[in-house]
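dumping this here before i forget
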Amino acid sequence: MVVRPHLHWFRMLLAWRGSVLPQLLPRLFLIFVISLAAMAVHAHWLPITVNLSTTPFSLVGIALAVFLGFRNNASYDRYWEARKLWGQLLNVARGLTRQALTLPRNAVPADELHEFTQVLGALPHALRHQLRRTDARKDLAARLPAPLLNRVMASRYQPTILVLWLGEWVQRRAQSGALDTVGVLAFDRNLTELTNLIGGCERIANTPLPFAYSVMIHRTVYFFCAALPFGLVESIGNFTPVFAVFVAYTFMAHEAIAAQIEEPFGTEDNDLALNAMSATIEDAVRDLLGQPSLANGKAERDFILD
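structure:
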């Protein structure tokens, strides 16, 4: 994800990284070539004549803008829900750490508290890798003891195994008499909330927008942009390439942005910064125990500042 400070209006015009313009340049060049062909046809440089009225383009453009608005709203809703789920994950992780520190009747040994925070801090990394379908072994090996690491890596749903282990930790504290029934229920509510958050992320990752809906808008946008120069050439003549490319950029950019944020857990410039968010959650857990941060430059590369 690209996060920038507030830019001057002129620098905003020249912003490159984080915009969808680089991937649109070949398509916009194609529209430019089609515009030149429309001008050639209109000036009878070619032995054919294709002159269209702007009226149908106005009607189709309005309808297309409405469809793109629905598509962008649907994509952004997925993006924003994913961000809220990860924000809640931070809150629940802090709550569990606070409970581990304050609810037991007897002081919990430091090594057991450290193990609890290690597992809780590893959970967002495991979830990130599951959502991105990448290998979590390297990140988890640096945070988990070998027996638990092998248990987690043998599972298809690695974050839920870590939640299970946290529940087993609470069970051991209850069996030793360090936690009463009220304390166990308090832990259980947060562990259940962790399970709900993981399930919410999995739902977003495993349920894309209907393909037929996306492909219909995609085809309509590109057909509209390819035909537009033939509707403009009669009225604006030599300025056809300029306005055709500008209108094409507007429609194509909206469609491309919607396609990016539709999958918020990816690694494109406008997806969620899961690397940095995972490091933030882990750091928040360690901070409650007075432990130093493990965040480093590599974990922060999701955020690119100009």
